[in-house]
Amino acid sequence: MSDQARPSPLHDEHVALGAALTDFAGWQMPLRYGSDVAEHTAVRTAAGLFDLSHMGELEVEGPGAGDALDRALVGNLTALEPGRARYTMICQADGGVLDDLVVYRHPDDERGRRYLVVANASNVDVVRDALAERFAGRDDVTLTDRSEQTALVAVQGPRAQEIVVGLVADPAEADAVAALRYYASVPARVAGLDALVARTGYTGEDGFELFVPAGDAPTLWRALLDAGSPLGLVPAGLSARDSLRLEAGMPLYGNELDTTTTPHDAGLGRVVKLDKVDAAGEPLPFVGREALESRAHAVPARTLVGLQGLSRRAARHGYPVVTATGAVVGTVTSGAPSPTLGHPVAMAYVTPEVSAEGTELAVDVRGRHEPVRVVPLPFYRRPR
Predict the structure, then answer these.
(1) Does residue 113 contact residue 123 with C-beta atoms inside 8 Å?
(2) By the 8 A CB rule, do 156 and 47 touch?
(3) Which CATH number describes the domain made up of 299-384?
(4) What is the H or E stretch that residue 116 is in?
(5) Where are the domains of the chain?
(6) Which residue intervals define the domain Aminomethyltransferase C-terminal in the entry (predicted)?
């Protein structure tokens, strides 16, 4: 672990719990506390507690905030209702993805003036600098990086609501948290602390993410751990987070998404809103629009697919995908054994002619061709 890696506001809590720490995107973060599989299983059956304080939080405010974001990102953010959130992306002019983001409109924002942009830890500087460049010359919008002052804690799993709502003393606030829709947020006092509570997540389970001032994070963490432990909640690290998101078919920047990849390549063309218009009703220009417009109906050179492993050896990032004759037709982006499903799973970019569901392929695992089958994403959906 690098000596230059920044400690999370919860660093001492992780050390006290015996976590194995790793350098992730310049932060010292918990990889695991004990067993990867046990932490993964706890999230699927009860709940897991995650430190996400390495994520970036960028405030965009002002009378032109919504319009500025519409021109900077591929999504239609002015269409967001107060308290709602949207998954979107920031792209280059050629359509390549700089980062995938979650943008929240503040619950009390009635005039489209206050947004929170949450960026991946590895791309905070890239996103901040790109937004600053795209906002240049506008006096109706301000951009503020709150990443250092903000901690983010997530509770994910079927008992997440029970745990979080149980720490909200005010009955009206408790009801509001319980009633939150997916990709929505509400302010509430949780364990006596002011928090923005969002019903989002990256595991395929129900769950909440809580934004609090960095100094309040240890108190919140301990309260959630104390309240949740009798219900099966365990602290969970980056390893379990990765296997959970893989089962849920969720992309990871640097694996499924990068600057050589467009949203359409990743099967996420739906996030690109080409129907955005300006005040005059004309198509709204946004960075990457021309390139993405041309890709919207074109046959992609490669397609992201799910692969079910038919043997015990798991495919890993970077392994070639091959046909029965040994011809290379793609590359694995993420792969691992699935604790929930009991067999290996992977995501891969392959050529369109081998992307149909049921196609039998193989992955070159250190010189040995391990059989796989193309299957729909996600691999796992939580019971309703």
Answers:
(1) no
(2) yes
(3) 2.40.30.110
(4) strand 114-119
(5) 6-52+149-247, 56-145, 299-384
(6) 302-380
Whole-angstrom distance, CA of residue 206 vs CA of residue 188: 18
Report the alpha-carbon distance of residue 380 to residue 306 in Å, rounded: 11
Q: 3: pLDDT confidence band, cut at 50, 70 and 90? A: low
Amino acid at 326: G
Q: Say if CB 39 and CB 30 are below 8 A apart.
A: no
Q: How much is the pLDDT for 80?
A: 95
90, with CB counted inside 10 A (0-12, 13-18, 19+), is: buried
**H or E, element range at 209:** strand 207-213
What's the whole-number average pLDDT of the chain? Answer: 96
The torsion angle over the Cα atoms of residues 257, 258, 262 and 267, rounded to 10 degrees, is -10
pLDDT score for 2: 52
The total number of residues written for the chain in this structure: 384
Q: Which residues are annotated as a binding site for substrate?
A: 209
Residue pair 189/168 in contact by the 8 Å Cβ criterion: yes
**H or E segment at 23?**
strand 20-24
Q: CATH code for 56-145?
A: 3.30.70.1400
Q: How would DSSP label each residue in 124-186?
A: HHHHHHHHHHHHTT-SS-EEEE-TTTEEEEEEESTTHHHHHHTT--SHHHHHHHHTPPTTBEE
Helices and strands per DSSP (H, E), number in the chain:
9, 20
Q: Which residue has the tokens 């901690």?
A: 151
Q: Which CATH class is domain 6-52+149-247?
A: alpha beta
pLDDT(252) > 90? yes
